[in-house]
Amino acid sequence: MIDVSSLTFGYPGKPFIFQDYDWQVSHGESWAIIGPSGCGKTTLLYLLAGLRQPVDGSVLVRQAPVLRPRRQTGLILQDYGLLPWATVAENVALGLAIRGVAATERRRVVDGWLTRLDIAGIAQQYPGQVSGGQRQRTAIARTLALEPDLLLMDEPFSSLDALTRESLQNLVIDLGLEGSLTVVLVTHSIEEAVFLGRKIMVLPSPPIQTGETIENPAAGEIGYRGQATFYEKCTQVRRAVERVMAHE
């Protein structure tokens, strides 16, 4: 699904963030990326999304170079990215309208996702009138209405209260299981990484040539948060992050 090969990238006038970096992701996998602040987590996500281009090396998705944002990639950000002057329903329909989907089909798709994400009751309200969790559900609905095969998320739940955050994490797990989505999540939360990522990549400080991959096959299972294995995995990830921070 994703093939990052000999990736080198740095912002103009700055040291390289990635240097000869390799990484592969198979279809349907869920990855969580974690590491110290400023280590390049969000930059890697932007490279996968086609919003940044490598200085050298390549980023392939489904064996095609990512030279620009691709139609089948969904990107969900922390700040929601909603149009404040458009209703919840209009925001969900935005991508479909841009693609020229007929109005009748747009309504069918939008109504389905509004219902699926439990926001049909606020369809005619504006983003400023609803809660943070409802705004993030709107952003998720807008993205999934376009039927992506790759879902990229950058700290999508960090500003939400604990119960809303857990509810949306459960939703992401359900959607991944239903649609065989490939998911890449950037997070600062060890607990979130362990709950959502069946593979967890701990990035060191730049220049990054490799990351430590931690297998986490129980991610997303019912009741995982309350199991001893969950806390053991959190401890394993925490120690990996501490090791890379000790070498900064």
Strand content of the residues, in percent?
A: 15-25%
Helix count, DSSP H or I runs of 4 or more residues: 7
* Count of domains: 2
User: Separation of termini?
Assistant: 32 Å
Overall pLDDT metric: 90
Sheet with the most strands, sense and barrel status: 6 strands, mixed
Poorly predicted tracts of residues = none
Describe the strand arrangement of the main beta sheet, using strand numbers.
Answer: 6-7-8-3-9-10
Q: What is the helix fraction of residues, given as a range?
A: 25-40%
Shape: globular
The CATH topology of the largest domain corresponds to Rossmann fold
Structural class: alpha/beta
SSE order in H/E notation?
Answer: EEEHEEEHHHEHEHEEH
- So, CATH architecture of the largest domain? 3-Layer(aba) Sandwich
